[in-house]
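Task 17 of the worksheet. Students: predict the tertiary structure of the chain below and write it out as C-alpha cells. Keep your answer in the requested format; marks are given for formatting as well as content.
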Amino acid sequence: MVRAALLAACLATPAIAQDWQGVVRMVGDLRSADPLATYRSAAAACIAGRGNADGTALIFESAGWAMTPDEAGLTAFQSQHPDVYVLASETGDFCAAFSERHGTDDATKVLFNIVVAGFLSLDTAPGDLGCKAYALAPGIVGEITSSGNDPVCDDARSSSIRITFGPAE
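Model answer:
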C-alpha cells in the first residue's frame, strides 16, 4: 500500500521536477550480461539523448555498441546481445530500443522504471502507431509496440520502446 502511494506520488510529480541524471544513471547497464538490463539501459539512453543524434550516438559508441548508418537516414546500434538493438534517426527526431526476446509487457515495465528514476511524467499521449504512448516530458513521447516492419500493440515475444522528440509545448 505504501509502495503504491509512493509510486503514485512519483508519477504525479510535475514535469518541472524531472531528474535527467536519474535517467542517465539508468544508462549504466548498456554492457550488462542480462539482456533485460541492457534493453532498459538502451531505452534510457534514447531518452537521455533528448533528441541530439550525435549525443545519443556517443552514448552507445562509448559503451562499445557497434554502429551502422544506412542510406535511409537511420543508424543502427547493436549490443552484445543479438536480440537487443537500437535504431535512431540521424536527425534526432526518434530513437527506438528493440528486444526480440522481451514482449510488450516487459517493455511497459522498462519504460515505467525509467519514468520513476527520472521523475518523468506518464500522461497518455497519441502515438505514431496508435499503441500505448506516454508524454514523458515536454516534446518527448514514448510508445510501446512489438518489433518488426509491421508492429502491433501487444506481443509476448518482441517489443520496441520508440521515443520521439518534437517541439516542447
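Marker's comment: DSSP finds five helices and eight strands in the chain. Helices lie at 2-11, 20-25, 35-48, 53-62, 104-118.
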